Amino acid sequence: MTFDVITIFPDFFRSILEHGLLKRAMASGHVTIRLHDLRDYADNRHRTIDDRPFGGGPGMVFKPEPLFRAVEALQIEAPEKSSRVILLSPQGRLLTQAVAEEFSHAERLVLICGRYEGVDERVAENLATDEISIGDFVLSGGELPAAVVMEATIRLLPGVLGNEESWEQDSFAVAAGRPLADGHGLLDCPHYTRPAEFRDWKVPEVLLSGNHEQIRQWRHRRALEKTWRQRPDLLAQVPLSEEDRRWLESLKDADSKPVLGTE
User: Fold this and answer.
1) 81: confidence class by pLDDT, cuts 50, 70, 90
2) Which of 8, 4, 6, 110 is nearest to 49 (CA)?
3) In a domain? residue 29
4) Which among 27, 119, 120, 261 has the fewest CB atoms less than 10 Å away?
């Protein structure tokens, strides 16, 4: 899989690409990541890539011509590869685990990192195939979101993590078009490691029992509880069993009971 990143700050990615998952994925040949300086596609000696917005207002806006030139040059360079052109933008659809898996099936992703006040709307309407946001907040540019898209997508490629099934146990692991397995779509369960006791806080006994079925049940219930307490909106997309529903009702009942001494 190939990632082409169009940015005015290619050096921003140098450190990111020299560590962790992205470095390993490139070294193993699973992905190719190429950085392209948008200013190389400007049409004047000042390498101008932005201008003031029509109608007035603060800030500067990326001009359409350099971005179209950059993307079209990449497409001409490798016409046999189908590309998804992703504009990183606060106005885009939200990046989710399902969207990341959708992207993981592409041959190439072209990531456009916006800056300043934004990007000429003709880019979003006529060049980008996807407009993606990583959350309901605003950043100074699209470089961090581009890195997030790459990390979220690359870890889903077969062989990158070594054990292809490991990512299926992650939080939000709801795969598009695939039946949900046990726990998919929930937040991850709590995890513990040695020591078994730290500052009088003990690891739950069930995790030390060696009983795999009891451990599985405990993890599933804790994942349900954490999802209900922290992201109840996710429960709407998870197929809950009757036992799951009874467990959640018992949690709600316990929370609704008054604490001694408070009344």
Assistant:
1) confident
2) 8
3) yes
4) 261
The DSSP call for residue 81 is S
Annotated catalytic sites, by residue? Answer: 90, 117, 155, 170
Average pLDDT over residues 221-229: 94
Nearest alpha carbon to residue 248 among 259, 263, 232: 232
DSSP calls for 151-216: HHHHTTSTTTSSSTTGGGGSTT---TTS---TTTTSPPPP---S-SEETTEEPPGGGGS--HHHHH
Scan for tokens 């946001």, then name that residue: 133
Same domain, 143 and 20: yes
What pLDDT sits at residue 162? 77
Structure tokens at 89: 């933008």
**136 lies in the same domain as 186:** no
Q: Is the pLDDT of residue 39 over 80?
A: yes
Q: Is 50 exceeded by the pLDDT of residue 258?
A: yes
Q: Within a domain: residue 109?
A: yes
- 28 lies in the same domain as 132: yes
Q: Which residues fall within 8 angstroms of residue 29, CB to CB, at 6 or more apart?
A: none
pLDDT in tens, 125-152: 999 999 999 999 999 999 999 999 999 9
Q: Give the pLDDT band (50/70/90) at residue 78.
A: confident
CA-based Rg of the chain, rounded to a whole angstrom?
Answer: 23
